[in-house]
Design a protein that fits this description.
The chain is an alpha/beta fold. It has a single domain, classed as Alpha/Beta hydrolase fold, catalytic domain (Rossmann fold). The chain is built from eight helices and eleven strands. The chain has an eight-stranded mixed beta sheet with strand order 1-4-7-5-8-9-10-11, with helices on both faces. A three-stranded antiparallel beta sheet has the order 2-3-6. The radius of gyration is 19 Å and the shape is globular. The chain starts with a helix and ends in a 12-residue tail after the last helix.
Length: about 290
């Protein structure tokens, strides 16, 4: 009987996970970019993690907290991957699962990517000096997808039990580029209420400005980032801070690039806890009540 109970529990858990809602976001077709291959998810031996490639139409997967701890705060999560792929677990689904345990509703965004063949990560590694020209037309599409995601969550806040004034955007690497693009191009409907760029790629991919009504920002990065993105993070923080906008920066001495939710035995492993502390201090969310002893 005990074995049967455990089996049924695991089956129910599996069905719950599989039943997560997928949202198809509205978007404008691109006249310059065509995808020949379908969207694909596979395990990348190069990056040692699952990736999604060839995204031609944006979607979001919804991760909802239990009703007894849901606090109305939401975060749109944009994984990175150089606009060729999405590191869908370490910088997406695993982030979302952590957030829902804190009562935060998470939306993992699949934004449009460079059209590729069967091994997108290998193609990214081979792009060389042509990388910037290849991704240039895709960046604007990805930013449009990010803006569409914020607008969708705000318009449907009541359905999800969310506060329309507590919608955040968190992005990693290329997803950090999308985050800053969203922060620089929003309308009233698509303005994020806070942003969290994590080792964002900015200076070489369009730059940034500080909007007049810029949202609060927390930047996460490692000084030994092998793509040299620590400077971008410092410049972002300084610009927000100089403009008098609430901003925080956690710069770890070690962590390299792409640490996401991976455990490397370093202080950067706990970056998401620093985000949670910051969100409480900013009044963005409220702490989950500890169960009685």
């Amino acid at each position: 009987m005990k074995t049967t109970t455990v089996t049924l529990f695991c089956l129910a858990l599996s069905m719950t996970t599989a039943a997560q809602e997928i949202i198809k976001l509205p978007y404008e077709e691109s006249s310059e970019t065509a995808w020949q291959k379908p969207e694909r998810q596979y395990y990348s031996e190069i990056w040692n993690t699952p990736v999604v490639t060839n995204v031609s139409s944006p979607t979001m997967q919804v991760f909802r907290p239990r009703k007894d701890i849901a606090n109305g705060t939401s975060v749109i999560v944009a994984p990175g991957g150089g606009f060729y792929a999405l590191s869908i677990d370490s910088e997406g689904n695993d982030v979302a699962r952590w957030l829902v345990d804190k009562g935060i509703t998470a939306f993992v965004l699949k934004y449009r990517l460079v059209p590729t063949g069967d091994e997108a990560v290998a193609e990214l590694n081979e792009a060389g000096d042509g990388f910037f020209e290849i991704v240039k037309p895709i960046i604007s599409l990805a930013i449009a997808d990010g803006l569409g995601a914020v607008s969708y969550v705000r318009k449907n806040a009541a359905r999800f039990g969310l506060d329309p004034a507590k919608i955040g955007f968190m992005g990693f690497s290329a997803g950090g580029t999308v985050t800053i693009g969203v922060a620089n191009n929003y309308t009233a409907d698509s303005r994020p209420d806070f942003i969290v760029p994590v080792y964002p790629a900015v200076s070489r991919l369009g730059g940034f400005s500080v909007p007049e009504d810029a949202p609060p920002m927390l930047v996460i990065c490692a000084a030994d980032d092998n793509l040299g993105l620590a400077t971008d993070s410092i410049e972002l923080f300084a610009a927000w801070n100089d403009a008098g906008v609430s901003a925080g920066l956690h710069m770890y001495s070690k962590g390299d690039h792409g640490f996401g939710m991976r455990k490397n035995g370093l202080p950067s492993d706990n970056w998401i806890e620093r985000f949670y502390e910051w969100s409480i201090a900013e009044g963005i969310t409220v702490p989950v009540a500890e169960p009685p002893p």
